[in-house]
Design goal:
globular; alpha+beta; 2 domains; 23% strand; 31% helix; Phosphoribosyl-aminoimidazole Synthetase, Chain A, domain 2; 9 helices; single chain; 60s Ribosomal Protein L30, Chain: A
């Protein structure tokens, strides 16, 4: 980072993103957050690392947007409306000013789209890969935060959007020759590189009994809900929504469904509720039910359990 000036980068690239009055133009060591009457503050943090969560050659604007959006997805799954975030950058020597300028432009575009502001953060040089950590803030009406622990026997299980597309995109980035369709190729890679957090669905989520965003994989994340709620979640394999592009890539058999359900990085919302919850903008599919017991089971059309040795992504598995 010897050719970069930390304070110049802050002033020229990142201070313009600090549109909230409480950020003080990034000219202080702290920021203030105005209290919103009748609401609770919701905080989440997530990091993305080159070579783990994105490819080192991925376009800088998209990397910035992914780093922000995975955090906004967490807020949406809790029923919260985002308003601001902190940004920490660990920058390797090979990253120059041009890359960081495009990175800041990506953040600016998403700030305008999602109504959020940079509140502060930090940056430092690193001998390791580019690493981006974001802490995001949102508001939820008091008492309406939706946790993992509220699922009850008799509830139904729902999911927004389609599952497995990001995993398909990752597979294509590793082996581009897998797909013969240019449109399917671009669509699936787009889902991997640029998730779409379900911000508009957040108000509807507040009526759910439990909710989680799908980052580790549908089965893995429903497992978190089952564990926190002390219940068993049963998922019907043939009900898991998958896009035509993913079916064209992986097929429509049982193995393809299991692969999609464990792929991760979908950033859709899985939730439980006694009845269907939906809005006009968001596709929602009922995929299962909540029962007494523990764990998560994936069943075929005849009601037999499908073996799923890997239910999702684990950061520290070797």
């Amino acid at each position: 980072m010897t050719r970069l000036s930390e304070f110049d980068l802050i002033e020229k690239l990142f201070a313009p993103l600090a549109t909230s009055p409480g950020a003080f133009g990034l000219k202080d060591d702290v920021a203030t957050v105005a209290e919103r009457r009748g609401c609770e503050l919701v905080v989440t943090a997530d990091a993305v690392v080159a070579g783990v969560d994105f490819f080192p050659g991925d376009p800088a604007p998209g990397v910035a947007k992914k780093a922000l959006r995975v955090n906004l997805s967490d807020l949406a799954a809790k029923g919260a409306e985002p308003f601001g975030y902190l940004l920490t950058l660990l920058i390797p020597r090979e990253i120059g000013r041009a890359y960081l300028k495009e990175f800041a432009e990506g953040l600016a575009q998403d700030q305008e789209r999602f109504g959020v502001s940079l509140l502060g953060g930090d940056m430092s040089a690193t001998p390791g890969p580019l690493s981006i950590a974001i802490t995001a803030f949102g508001h939820v009406p008091a008492g309406r935060l939706v946790r993992r622990s509220g699922a009850r026997a008799g509830d139904l299980v729902f999911v927004t959007g389609t599952i497995g597309d990001s995993g398909g995109g990752l597979a294509l980035l590793k082996e581009p020759a897998l797909s013969s369709s240019a449109s399917a190729h671009d669509s699936l890679i787009g889902r991997y590189r640029l998730p779409e957090p379900r911000i508009a669905f957040a108000p509807a989520v507040r009526d759910a009994s439990a909710s989680i965003d799908i980052s580790d994989g549908l089965l893995a994340d429903l497992g978190h809900v089952a564990e926190a709620s002390g219940v068993r979640i049963v998922v019907a394999a043939d009900r898991i929504p998958r896009s035509p592009e993913l079916k064209a890539l992986w097929g429509d058999g049982e193995e393809a469904i299991v692969r999609a359900a464990a792929a991760g990085d979908d950033y859709e919302i899985a939730f439980t509720a006694p009845t269907l919850i939906q809005d006009a903008q968001t596709p929602v599919t009922c995929i299962g039910r909540v029962e007494q017991g523990s764990g998560v089971e994936l069943l075929d059309a005849a009601g037999r359990e499908i073996a799923t040795p890997r239910k999702g992504y684990r950061h520290f598995e070797r």
